[in-house]
UniProtKB/TrEMBL annotation:
GO molecular function, one term: hydroxypyruvate isomerase activity
A biological-process GO annotation: glyoxylate metabolic process
Record domain Xylose isomerase-like TIM barrel: where: 3-164
Protein name: Hydroxypyruvate isomerase
Xref: Pfam families: AP_endonuc_2
SUPFAM superfamilies for the chain: Xylose isomerase-like (SSF51658)
Keyword Isomerase: yes
Keywords on record: Isomerase
Length: 177
């Protein structure tokens, strides 16, 4: 079981840079506490950087660099990074190098095309077939969450997954596909 632990927002009108240290310390304390609670079960807590340019301008945790620094301070193996490619592309790009660098911290991946936040095979900035290959080469075996707004019906929008399986010689056999 994986739980997204959210970071909260910088107060309205506040100067993010001035508040950063003051907000980080209690969050790290809370994460330490959460790690202890989660450790009583086979549960993993996830930190997700969310972009502050479009989606959530006051969200405190916005880059994998920031998440990695906090995960390092807590130092518990049951806290991981939830890397949403949509947010990462908007905040920092540099997807190949960031994936490689933060791969050991990743506990969950989410995807959506940029900027429309739709299926990965819709027009946009991110080359998902390439990124899926990168994830395979890095040895990723976890889930990939589809955090997007489908253009039409959900099953219809999963054409990208059918194509991905076919490219790997796999037979889709689930009831939706
Ligand atoms: C790209 O990401 C890597 C790893 O996070 C970092 O070392 C490098 O400085 C980044 N490059 C640029 C141009 O930001
Ligand atoms: C789908 O394929 C997997 C692996 O071959 C198999 O274990 C599973 O029973 C299949 N599911 C259905 C619904 O046919």
């Amino acid at each position: 079981c994986r739980i997204h632990i959210m970071a909260g927002r910088v107060p309205e009108g506040a100067d993010r840079a001035a508040l950063a240290a003051g907000m980080e310390a209690p969050f790290v304390d809370n994460l330490r506490h959460a790690a202890g609670v989660l450790a009583q079960e086979p549960m993993v807590g996830l930190l997700e950087p969310i972009n502050t340019r479009i989606t959530d301008p006051r969200y405190f945790l916005s880059t994998p660099q920031q998440a990695a620094a906090m995960l390092e301070q807590v130092g518990q193996p049951n806290l991981k990074l939830q890397l949403d490619i949509f947010h990462l592309q908007i905040m920092d790009g540099n997807l190949t190098r960031n994936l490689e660098t933060y791969f050991p911290l990743i506990g969950h991946i989410q995807i959506a095309q940029v900027p429309a936040r739709q299926e990965p095979d819709t027009p946009g900035e991110v080359n998902f077939p390439y990124l899926f290959q990168q994830l395979e080469s890095l040895g990723y075996t976890g889930y990939v969450g589809c955090e997007y707004t489908p253009r039409g019906a959900t099953a219809e929008g999963l054409g990208w997954l059918r194509e991905y399986w076919q490219s790997r010689g796999l037979e889709p056999n689930g009831s939706i596909l």
